[in-house]
Specification:
The structure holds two protein chains of two kinds.
Chain A: E1 5-16, E2 19-30, E3 34-39, H1 45-52, E4 60-65, E5 68-69, H2 75-81, E6 83-86, H3 98-102, E7 109-110, E8 114-115, H4 117-130, H5 146-159, E9 164-168, H6 176-191, E10 195-199, H7 203-209, E11 212-217, E12 220-226, H8 232-240, E13 263-270, E14 277-281, E15 286-291, H9 297-304, E16 310-317, E17 320-322, H10 327-332, E18 335-338, H11 342-346, H12 353-357, E19 366-367, E20 370-371, H13 373-386, H14 403-415, E21 421-425, H15 433-448, E22 452-456, H16 460-466, E23 469-474, E24 477-483, H17 489-497
Parallel strand pairs in A: 3-10, 3-11, 6-9, 9-10, 15-22, 15-23, 18-21, 21-22
Antiparallel strand pairs in A: 1-2, 1-4, 4-5, 7-8, 11-12, 13-14, 13-16, 16-17, 19-20, 23-24
Helix pairs in contact in A: 4-5, 7-8
Chain B: H1 2-37, H2 44-69, H3 77-93, H4 98-126, H5 131-149, E1 154-156, H6 160-166, E2 169-170, E3 173-174, H7 175-193, H8 195-205, H9 207-212, H10 217-243, E4 245-247, H11 255-265, H12 277-296, H13 304-323
Antiparallel strand pairs in B: 1-4, 2-3
Helix pairs in contact in B: 1-12, 2-7, 2-8, 2-10, 2-11, 2-12, 3-4, 3-5, 3-10, 4-5, 4-10, 6-10, 7-8, 8-10, 11-12, 11-13
Classes of the chains: A alpha/beta, B mainly alpha.
């Protein structure tokens, strides 16, 4: 191992319950460098990170850190070596102060017993100053913005004598000036000899801030190259393994203007997070709903589906105003909703696939409230065929299927109550590329048959690839609607952030 | 890899069958050991006695199984049994015509049971109080009400028809056993074959996903408490006919624990979402046979709780293994 390498990984493999997630993956990280780690959802990035930071152990392969082979790594031993991870969901105790968080678990003490508050405050102030931040060491974390919380996480990492910092999608929750600040900090850390692994979907950012970029695809290592040799477009093709445009169905033609919209939102306002949101969705249309995390996209969808209360505004289905206070009423109005969080609200993992498919529409299969199981199973078999769901039978618990097949089951569940309007919230989050293509083609097929489809997605490629028309939310309202050639990354981000 | 997965699935199918039949295998083994080892145990009269004894808790355990599968717990069930029983017998004393009195007592006992369950359900679903806390409260309230009504004593009936019901049997099996088995079949069919049963499982397995799937999870949970209350009422009526009286202090005491234990031993998941009525019936018999056999072997009465407790813990450990 050459002296300038901090981390070298060779032949790393990992399987979960018989499914191979990483297959002989390699990776090298130089001292004082920023390495971009990119790959589709489900490509194995998070598993690779978990192997490095001790959350899980690989089945095979070697991890060399600073010339030493890591064996039986635990979270604690990784931290002791200076391997620090900043997860997507921050690990901060919200009710505690910045200082308390930075020293959580290794507090400075007088005589090993009493907390030395003044020393901790001083050290915290130094760290924050080094990061050019104005956060007070005594501020309670819950009062900080997301960007500030991230700074606190970085300060905590520095305090732990961090040598390798792993950042998982750090920029998704930031606006452009905050991203700039993050990059400035990352470059300063690199200057101090700290290595960074930067996991991101945003290829332009990877291009900007990373020295090298490593690509994973379906658990396989594709390549590791200097960023200078690749364009963002090259990275995208390497991730997907084929030309992006080919996985999206052709976009439907613009709807006839005279028909009333299948779904119209007119000034929908919630108690918080959504204010005066308006949009129109027509039959056979695939409308994108883009925006940053926290812009109110999901909350708006949940209001339409009857999970959140609206305080004012109207929801019209086929031109008629409807009052929706529960999912049951939404379903009765012909609205289907695929939730963004499949595990917790989309499916019942322990239930067989067939039971999940009939979860909403069970009455259809009942005769005087007795379930006709033959009919239920036949319907499930039909979905298995139509959606190419990989499973032995409809009796397999859906939790045992892969993410992509679970998602197909969740779509089947919502389709089975014969909706006219289908809201997809992050339809391909965390699923493999093949299922992703399948799901895009189902959405295309549904639209051709007249379904009104609304696609909520943080994945701009997806929104741009699927939708001819995109509504962009910012700060809880629809900031603008883009059509045809205006549907591009630049204009969407401009509307989403309000910054050119 | 594909072949691997297929064998993995086949193995899993077998382990599933094994897991689901665990309570029955345990019951069969227990029965075999007891029958071989003790001549008193195997006498038909003793076996019939066991069946009668387990029926009272068994009926309550059926309702408890629904509550637990839907993700809740009902600690008040034993107190509710006492309250319903006391109410029934007291009402009976006020009616002259014997047949009408028995009918009125039957209706009142069931009605109080259902009402108590409805109150539990309302506190839990409308008041959004965790079921453990809500029913811990009503455990105290229902017991206190029955003590107050009976002046902390026993209320007795002087109705001969009532007494006759208590010793009634059919084809050699006592009436409570018939009711227990009959209800078990009905409950089993509800759980496996109807949309209500499916919704109970869905609510317990993942309430949020069930909610998003347009299932009215509040209503579903409410119904399970009402049903549990009904089973407490049925059990109270049968129990008081047996003794021709009911004690406001002792009746139903710790029935909730036996009912929970039976459900858990029978494979119902403590966190909800999964369980079977047949399993609960097996669990009820396992507990009943053990306590009877300990008597027959002359084990100290005060140590029976130790055995029962150990079995509950072992059952949960076995369940945990399955989930791991």
């Amino acid at each position: 191992m050459s002296a300038e390498m901090l981390l070298e990984i060779r032949g790393l493999s990992k399987s979960y319950s018989g499914v191979r997630v990483l297959n002989s993956v390699s990776l090298s990280v130089r001292k004082g460098s920023v390495t971009g780690l990119i790959g589709e959802n489900g490509a194995g990035k998070s598993t690779l990170i978990k192997c490095i930071n001790g959350v899980t152990r690989p089945d095979a392969g070697e991890i060399l850190f600073a010339g030493e082979t890591l064996r039986r790594t635990t979270i604690e031993s990784a931290l002791r070596r200076g391997i620090v991870t900043i997860p997507q969901e921050f690990n901060l105790a919200n009710e505690m102060t910045v200082r308390e968080n930075i020293f959580l678990g290794h507090e400075l003490k007088h005589g090993g017993v009493f907390l030395n508050h003044s020393a901790m405050r001083k050290r915290t102030a130094e760290l924050l100053e080094r990061l050019e931040s104005r956060i007070s060491p005594d501020a309670e974390v819950s009062t900080l913005s997301i960007a500030e919380k991230q700074i606190v996480e970085i300060a905590r990492a520095l305090n732990r004598a961090c040598r390798l910092l792993i950042m998982d999608e750090p920029s998704t929750v930031l606006n452009p000036p905050e991203v700039e600040n993050l990059f400035r900090i990352m470059r300063a850390m690199r200057g101090d000899g700290i290595s960074i692994i930067y996991v991101s979907h945003k290829l332009n950012e990877v291009k900007t801030v990373c020295d090298t970029v490593a690509v994973l695809r379906d658990g396989e290592f594709v390549c590791e190259k200097p960023t200078a040799e690749l364009t963002a477009r090259d990275m995208a093709s390497l991730m997907v393994g084929r030309e992006l445009s080919r996985i999206f169905p052709p976009k439907p033609a613009p709807p006839a203007e005279d028909a009333p919209p299948a779904l119209e939102l007119d000034g929908v306002t919630l108690e918080k997070l959504v204010h005066h949101a308006s949009l129109k969705l027509h039959r056979g249309e695939i409308l994108g709903l883009a925006g940053l995390g926290g812009s109110g996209r999901t909350e708006l969808a949940e209001a339409v589906y009857g999970i959140r209360k609206t305080v004012s505004g109207r929801i019209l289905v086929n031109g008629r105003e409807v009052r929706i206070h529960s999912p049951a009423q939404a379903v009765a109005s012909g609205i289907a909703y695929l939730t963004e969080d499949r595990q917790s609200s989309g499916i019942i993992q322990t239930f067989p696939l067939a039971w999940n498919c009939s979860l909403i529409s069970l009455r259809k299969y009942c005769l005087a409230s007795f379930i006709r199981k033959k009919k239920e199973n036949a319907a499930a078999e039909e979905y298995i065929r139509r959606f190419r769901i990989k499973t032995n039978s409809g009796a397999t618990p859906i939790g045992e299927l892969s993410g992509g097949n679970q998602q197909k089951g969740a779509i089947a569940k919502s389709l089975d109550h014969s909706p006219e309007i289908f809201i997809f919230d992050e339809p391909t989050r965390g699923i493999d590329i093949k299922s992703r293509g399948d799901i895009y083609s189902f959405i295309g097929e549904l639209a051709r048959r007249g379904m009104a489809c609304l696609i909520i997605s943080s994945d701009l490629e997806e929104v741009i690839g699927l939708c001819r028309k995109v509504a962009v939310m910012r700060g809880g309202t629809v900031a603008g609607i883009l059509e045809d050639e205006h549907v591009n990354e630049k204009e969407i981000m401009y509307l989403a952030t309000g910054v050119k | 890899m594909n072949r691997n997965q297929t064998t993995l699935r086949k193995q899993r199918a077998w382990t599933d069958i094994l897991n689901e039949s665990k309570p029955f295998l345990a019951l069969a083994a227990l029965l075999l050991v007891c029958i071989i080892s003790n001549e008193h145990f195997r006498s038909p009269q003793n076996l019939i006695n066991i069946t009668r004894q387990v029926s009272y808790t068994g009926i309550v355990a059926l309702g408890m199984t629904f509550v637990i599968i839907a993700g809740g717990i009902d600690l008040s069930i034993g107190s509710l049994l006492a309250l319903a029983g006391v109410s029934g017998i007291m009402l009976m004393g006020k009616i002259a015509d014997p047949a009408a009195a028995v009918l009125a007592a039957f209706a009142a006992t069931l009605a109080i049971g259902i009402l108590g369950g409805v109150v539990n359900g309302a506190i839990i679903t409308l008041g959004k109080v965790p079921s453990f806390i809500a029913t811990l409260g009503t455990l105290s309230i229902y017991r206190s009400l029955s003590l107050y009504m009976a002046d902390a004593g026993t209320v007795s009936s002087s109705n001969d028809m009532f007494r006759a019901l208590g010793s009634a049997d059919f084809l050699g099996l006592p009436l409570p056993a018939w009711v227990f088995f009959g209800l078990a079949v009905v409950f089993g069919v509800i759980l496996r074959q109807t949309s209500l049963g499916r919704h109970i499982c869905a609510t317990g397995a993942n309430a949020k996903a069930a909610e998003y799937a347009a299932i009215k999870t509040g209503t579903v949970r409410f119904i399970t408490y009402a049903i549990a209350g009904l089973t407490a009422g049925v059990s109270a009526f049968l129990f008081s006919t047996r003794l021709n009286s009911i004690s406001s202090t002792d009746a139903g005491l710790s029935y909730e624990l036996d009912a929970i234990a039976a459900a858990i031993i029978g494979g119902t998941a403590m966190n909800g979402g999964r369980g079977s009525i047949a399993g609960t019936v097996a669990g009820v018999f396992i507990l009943g046979i053990i306590s009877n056999a300990l008597d027959m072997w002359g084990a100290p009465v005060n140590l029976q709780g130790l055995v029962k407790g150990s079995i509950i813990i072992i059952a949960v450990l076995i369940q945990r293994q399955k989930n791991a």
